[in-house]
Amino acid sequence: MSNNNLDSHKTAAIKLDSFSTDEKYMLRCIQIAKNGLGTTAPNPMVGAVIVYNDQIIGEGYTSAYGGAHAEVNAINSVKDITLLKSATLYVTLEPCSHFGKTPPCADLIVKMGIPKVVIGLKDPHEKVAGNGIKKLEQAGCNVQVGILKRECEEHHKRFLTFYTKKRPYIILKWAETTDGFIAPEPTLRGEKKKPYWITNTRSRQLVHKWRSEEPGILVGTNTVLADNPQLNLRDWTGKPPTRIIIDRTLKIPNEFHVFDGKQKTIICTEVEDAGQYLDNITYKVLNFETSLPQQLCSLLNEEQIQSVIIEGGRKTIESFIESNLWDEARIFKGAAIFKKGIKAPKIKGVIKEQVQISTDQLTILTP
């Protein structure tokens, strides 16, 4: 499925004249690394480029989790490996130095005799944290760190947040009407439980694309009871996110979509009686007498969910805003007018991006 329509607002031309040679190649690393979005987690989505005589002779990005890392894919793409001994490797994040699902990338770089390595960021993961750089330098490599550091930090924001703040990268998302409501009053709904759309089909497709990019999606009880959402991918292809549902007293009916068993689902509840649990669902007991956002962050950290979209409802979203636990807010304003209903959350932030999507306006805020 083409994503040209959905990503056109992010493809503004970059004036390369203002960048150094090293920065231009690092930009290419960032560009190709995005091919791993939604598939590499919990590994970072790294991009790597190999340059010989000012020509790219190899490039690669991190394979889906369990597969080869970016550096390995870049090296394997080089047709004449003898050139590696006179080449420069560019990579967005410090090469790993430990055995995980795959051998250490730093060892392969040394083995292939690559004399110069240009790195965007030091890896904050405790198993790397400078050890990859140290291994390369001890082998005689000329290592540079910090090229396009800010841009690499933005690219690796999910990975960095997870390992430096010990919580997932949190994206708040909602749609509101022109007059500021996120849901209508119940009398406007039909008897069948289903979403009441505020946005147009193009915006809804974009949301499904977003879901394919993040490993988790979180909603509260009232959102499920009102909309009976599927929280899956229907208008995009990819891996559906893990559903995290807040259901304090297990009041959501068993026949609702979130219990269909088609993707991993975690129910957060205070009910400890496992006799009330469904077989294909994971249950986590939380203390609802204290702040939920921090408990949910700890839970997602334990589950290795590095980023999450919080899609509702107002109470759940506002609890994260009030706890100052959010990194982005993606807010659609549709053409609909409700006059009465549930008011949209209140949030203050810096406008990172604004774009018109047919009849809808999308605003992305950061704290």
What this model shows, in words?
It contains 11 helices and 16 strands. By secondary structure, the chain is α/β, with parallel strands linked by helices. The chain has 2 domains: 16-151, 3-Layer(aba) Sandwich (Cytidine Deaminase, domain 2), CATH 3.40.140; 166-366, 3-Layer(aba) Sandwich (Dihydrofolate Reductase, subunit A), CATH 3.40.430. Helix 9 links the parallel strand 8 (216-219) and strand 9 (242-246). Helix 4 runs parallel beside helix 5 (131-138). The chain is elongated, with a radius of gyration of 23 Å. Residues 1-13 have low confidence and may be disordered.
Brief descriptors of the model:
single chain; 16 strands; Dihydrofolate Reductase, subunit A; 9-stranded mixed beta sheet; 2 domains; 5-stranded mixed beta sheet; 26% helix; disordered N terminus; Cytidine Deaminase, domain 2; elongated; alpha/beta; 11 helices; 367 residues
Short description:
The chain has 367 residues and is α/β, with parallel strands linked by helices.
Computed over alpha carbons, the radius of gyration is 23 Å
Fraction of residues in β-strands = 15-25%
State the CATH topology of the largest domain: Dihydrofolate Reductase, subunit A
List the quaternary state of the chains.
Answer: single chain
Q: How many separate domains make up the residues?
A: 2
Biggest sheet, open or closed, and with what strands and sense? 9 strands, mixed
Count of runs of 4 or more consecutive helical residues: 11
Overall, the morphology is elongated
By CATH's scheme, which homologous superfamily of the largest domain applies? Dihydrofolate Reductase, subunit A
**Strands ordered across the widest β-sheet:** 11-10-9-8-12-6-13-16-15
What structural category arises from helix and sheet content?
alpha/beta
Cofactor: Zn(2+)
Protein name: Riboflavin biosynthesis protein RibD
Binding site for substrate: 211, 231, 234, 311
Binding site for NADP(+): 175, 197, 223, 227, 313-319
